[in-house]
Write a structure and sequence with these properties.
about 210 residues; alpha/beta; 5-stranded parallel beta sheet; two-stranded antiparallel ribbon; about 20% strand
């Protein structure tokens, strides 16, 4: 029995209607395109929708600073000054330690980390140093090596101290020879700032034209 025109062929419709191209070949009918997914919620592990990458904007000086084959590296860091800043706080021998304590407090309040600061005394040891040394030198120097807190030591042991950004010297006694030895040593240990608390005349006589 011949098929009527209005009766659909089931085996053809199961695969979806096909369109005939100009060449006579049947091309698959395009499937419906789903709407775009929100860009803010891409699937985990799969990239989100591809978007054109905006061009990188370069400042004029960045382009000009691009080195040639033998030119210097662009944006080179400024060299760190080799000489630390020197600050003198006038104080008597009896008041030098208190002045050093005030200087440490100001440093910490200004944002300096406690491990940045080393305090050296030329006369009586700082009470903290005397207390910690009572537990033995191994425990005392272990705190120095940890470098996470302000460290106090006497001028006699200053040679064992590692460099720190800030060194504070309290000239609270001792001979001029002790001061003449410890001040240049403290200067060599200070990375950015050397603070000396004591009698200005004595300190200037020891330092001469400067450390």
């Amino acid at each position: 029995m011949p098929l009527l025109p209005e009766e659909p062929q089931i085996h053809e419709s199961a695969q979806g209607p096909r369109a005939t191209s100009a060449t006579g070949r049947t091309a698959p009918t395009p499937r419906p395109v789903p709407g775009p997914r929100p860009a803010a919620h891409p699937r985990p592990g799969r990239p989100g929708p591809l978007r054109p990458t905006p061009p990188v904007q370069r400042a004029p000086h960045d382009v000009a600073a691009k080195p040639g084959p033998s030119g210097p590296a662009p944006h080179a860091a400024a060299p760190v000054p080799a000489t630390p800043q020197l600050q003198l706080i006038p104080a008597s021998a009896d008041g030098a330690l208190d002045a050093a304590e005030e200087a440490v407090d100001l440093l910490l309040e200004s944002g300096r980390a406690p491990g940045d600061v080393l305090v050296v005394t030329t006369g009586e040891p700082h009470p903290w140093a005397a207390h910690e040394l009572s537990f033995g030198e191994a425990s005392y120097w272990a705190q120095h090596d940890a470098g996470d807190d302000v460290f106090y030591l006497h001028a006699d042991a200053a040679g064992r101290a590692a460099a720190r950004p800030v060194v504070v010297v309290a000239v609270n006694g001792g001979s001029d020879a002790v001061a003449a030895t410890v001040l240049p040593l403290a200067h060599s240990r200070a990375g950015a700032l050397l603070i000396v608390c004591g009698d200005p005349q004595q300190i200037n006589a020891v330092l001469g034209t400067g450390v």
